[in-house]
């Protein structure tokens, strides 16, 4: 869908504002959008917006911009949208994650979207209970709002791609090259001597795929299979961390390393 974009104006914006993320179908040809959900409530009750206020907005998988509040009431808010001409780059880090417990994956969605990943590849491992795959948090209607929540927190627009694989060996041997063609492959391992940030820094330009195992760790077969398919073991010390803590810490180190 083509959206009429006006040149972004240089209005003063409150730096505390999060991004209000819009779906493409919500923006009309005239550049106006009417919100009647939690975003409207956020504009009214948290940002204290009024007609004439300017707020940060973004188009899902599209550009960022500025929204001018045209009207705001108890349940609705109307915005005039002015988008930038460029689209944010997709984050250069992808995450391969052994599926954690349902209450943990519920927390992870928004966190990894906020810190920045291009795709999330969920898989089985020996220390992953098979019934974890039955959770409703693997349904797009459940995890997509969480991903969007993370993007709005981080002021990003690029929605991570998600794929779910119940067979680890099939994923690594037959499917992974199609999901991640070029770039460095790193596998988190508390016993690894190479720090994750240093490994990301040494590889130069290109994407990075970070594999994070279950809280009990990858078993010997899984570590061997990862190594046979180009994964370098990396760590951040000997401590065994919860999955959500490990994901965020490792992703932060890899992002920082890629800058160097």
Give the structure's gist in a few sentences:
By secondary structure, the chain is an alpha/beta fold.
Low-pLDDT regions: 1-16
CATH class of the largest domain: Alpha Beta
Number of distinct beta strands? 11
CATH architecture of the largest domain: 3-Layer(aba) Sandwich
Total number of helical segments? 7
Enumerate the strands of the largest sheet in spatial order, edge to edge or round the barrel. Answer: 8-7-6-10-9-11
Oligomer: single chain
CATH superfamily of the largest domain: SPOUT methyltransferase, trefoil knot domain
Number of domains: 2
Keywords: Cytoplasm, Methyltransferase, rRNA processing, S-adenosyl-L-methionine, Transferase
Function: Specifically methylates the N3 position of the uracil ring of uridine 1498 (m3U1498) in 16S rRNA. Acts on the fully assembled 30S ribosomal subunit.
Family: Belongs to the RNA methyltransferase RsmE family.
Protein name: Ribosomal RNA small subunit methyltransferase E
